[in-house]
Structures are given as structure tokens and as C-alpha cells.
Specification:
Blueprint lengths: L3 E8 L4 E8 L9 E9 L2 H8 L15 E9 L9 E5 L14 E4 L5 E2 L6 H23 L9 E3 L5 H12 L4 E5 L5 H6 L4 E4 L15 E6 L3 H9 L1 E9 L13 H5 L3 E4 L7 H14 L2 H6 L1 E5 L3 H9 L6 E5 L1
Helix pairs in contact: 1-9, 2-3, 2-7
């Protein structure tokens, strides 16, 4: 049986081990669709798992990579046939089921989405889970009635994957976007994506007031913890925050005051088990609303062998935008 390259994480009693190895299809987990994977990407969650900074992997050994794109080579699923181009993100892939850092994947066909004709596989992974999550956040703001004329939209963690795509999407849709980052050296980059101004994340690290001065019509937050609590306290009456991440922490030291005195809405974004119809809608919106010039500008490309290094960099905030992995 033909062998293919994969990044495999195993664990002993004392340490986690990461290696590039060769496997066969017999080594893969069960599924009704087999895919020749051409591209994946490096997301914050991938970085946490590979570096061992957080217990992302639910079993060992594990092939990380929470998203992938490629071509169907075998299928007994009713919706997919050989030659179909597909994209996958979430559903525990790269956590409890072998993921995208391998040249072949075998998965549940219900997890797949047809690749929009507008995108190549590389472009789909330049979007990846992070960009798809950003689109879900934008859709949530729209569905709660947030409009460009109501005021500025704050994007936290703006130089990261979710943040950078959120800035690009919101600016294209006519919103005035303020980008928050701890890397002020990225100001020019963020403005090139459409941010009207850039603020230091330290503005949101101080003590949380029950009700601070209102500043934002809405926000996309991938940081959590004290940052999210401060952002909530600064949202205008009837404004909305879409929360999708925990880079700073899982806690939320907030007050109920913004919710009961200003009618602020906090919408949680779960991109892992989003139902397929909404996934398809999000990808259709990305095909319509994402500026491809901006997408290319925020993307870098690496090889499979580079993934452990990039994983280290992404968890300490040294990665800008999106990183695509060529398999």
C-alpha cells in the first residue's frame, strides 16, 4: 500500500513527541470519504496542541490540523464522488480524529463542504477555520441588526487569523473598523486590510468597570477574559459582541450591567459543530464578500516540515494573518 507523509503527535508518560513520518491508508481512522489533501493551515488551536500548551488532543497518536482541503479519491457517501473538491474545518478533526497534516485523510462525509468554485484549495485554507469563523462572527453582528452607520466595530486580536480576516470582511462591507493588537508594528498591515485606526490591546487589560464610556457599535473578540469583559462594558446600547476565542483566557470577569442596563448582546460563535447549511452559507458569503487581494496579502505559505516551528510561533503571538500548509 502506498505511503504518504504525515505529522504525527504521540505521547509517553513524560513527554509529547512530534515527528514527520510515513503512513498508509490502513493507519487512518474510519470514515466514508477519503481525500487527497493538498492544503491545510496552522490555527491557534493547532499551535496549542502541537506545543502541548493545552490538552487539545483527545487521543494519541494524533495527526493535528483542524482544517483541510483536497480532492475526493474514494467515497461511499451519497453527497460526494471521486474528483469532488471539498473543504473541512472543525468536527474534532485534528483533535479526536486524524486531521489535515497528512497527504491523505479519511473522514465522515457529513463534515465536508463542497469547495466554492471561486476558491482554489490553497485559497480555501488561507481562509480556513479562522476565516470561516470570522465570517460567522460578521453574520452574527448583521443578524443582530448592527449596521455601519451605528458606529465603529472593534476587532480584538486583529493581527491573528480570525482578526485579520474579520478586519478585511467588515471593511469591505462598509464598517469603520478599529483593530486592537499587542503588535503595534503591524499598524500599517492592519490599515492595508481596511482598519481605519489601530489601538493597543493594553487599553483593554485594566480593571473592568461595570459600565464604561460607550465606544463601539459592535465587536469581534477572539481574546476572551479581561479583554472581552472590558469590550462588553464599552458597547453602545443594543450593540453586539461576537465572541469566538480565548487567547487571553477562558474566564470572563464581567458585570451583568451592560446586558440589563444597555441591552448589550453577547453572541457565542461555535465554529466546530456548526450545522452544514450554515457552513455552506458562510462559505457562500466568503466567496461574495472577501476581497481576494486582501486575503493574499494576509497569507503566507509553508511546508509540512515547517509546522512545528510555526506552531511555536503562533502561540506566542508571532504569526501575522494566516499560514497555509502545502501538503
Amino acid at each position: 500500500m502506498e505511503k504518504f507523509r504525515a505529522l504525527l503527535v504521540s505521547k509517553t508518560e513524560t513527554r509529547q513527541h512530534v515527528e514527520i513520518t510515513r503512513l498508509t491508508e490502513a493507519d487512518l481512522m474510519d470514515g466514508d470519504v477519503t481525500i487527497a489533501v493538498s492544503h491545510s493551515s496552522v490555527n491557534y488551536k493547532d499551535g496549542l496542541g502541537i506545543t502541548g500548551k493545552s490538552p487539545i488532543f483527545r487521543k494519541y497518536p494524533m495527526i493535528p490540523g483542524i482544517d483541510l482541503a483536497g480532492v475526493v479519491t474514494k467515497s461511499v457517501h451519497k453527497d460526494y464522488k471521486i474528483g469532488d473538491h471539498v473543504v473541512l474545518g472543525g468536527w474534532g478533526v485534528g483533535e479526536g480524529h486524524y486531521g489535515g497534516y497528512a497527504q491523505v485523510a479519511r473522514v465522515n462525509g457529513d463534515w465536508l463542504v463542497p469547495l466554492p468554485k471561486k476558491f482554489s484549495a490553497a485559497e480555501a485554507m488561507a481562509i480556513g477555520v479562522a476565516g470561516y469563523t470570522a465570517m460567522l462572527c460578521v453574520m452574527a453582528l448583521e443578524e443582530q441588526g448592527v449596521k455601519p452607520e451605528q458606529g465603529e466595530i472593534l476587532v480584538t486580536g486583529a493581527a491573528g487569523g480570525v482578526g485579520s480576516v474579520s478586519v478585511a470582511l467588515l471593511s469591505t462591507l462598509g464598517f469603520k473598523v478599529v483593530a486592537s493588537t499587542g503588535r503595534m508594528e503591524e499598524e500599517a498591515f492592519l490599515k492595508s486590510l481596511g482598519a481605519t485606526s489601530v489601538v493597543n490591546r493594553s487599553e483593554f487589560n485594566g480593571p473592568v468597570k461595570a459600565l464604561a464610556k460607550t465606544r463601539w457599535a459592535g465587536a469581534v473578540d477572539s481574546v476572551g477574559s479581561t479583554t472581552l469583559a472590558n469590550v462588553i462594558s464599552q458597547i453602545i446600547p443594543e450593540g453586539t459582541v461576537a465572541a469566538c476565542g480565548l487567547a487571553q483566557g477562558m474566564d470572563l470577569p464581567a458585570s451583568v450591567a451592560p446586558f440589563i442596563l444597555r441591552g448589550v448582546r453577547l453572541i457565542g460563535i461555535n465554529s466546530v459543530t456548526t450545522p452544514k447549511p450554515r457552513r455552506i452559507l458562510a462559505w457562500e458569503r466568503l466567496a461574495r464578500d472577501l476581497d481576494m487581494t486582501k486575503l493574499h496579502a494576509l497569507t503566507t505559505t509553508v511546508k509540512l516540515d515547517d509546522v512545528p516551528r510555526v506552531a511555536e510561533e503562533i502561540v506566542v503571538g508571532k504569526v501575522r494573518g494566516r499560514v497555509v500548509v502545502e501538503l
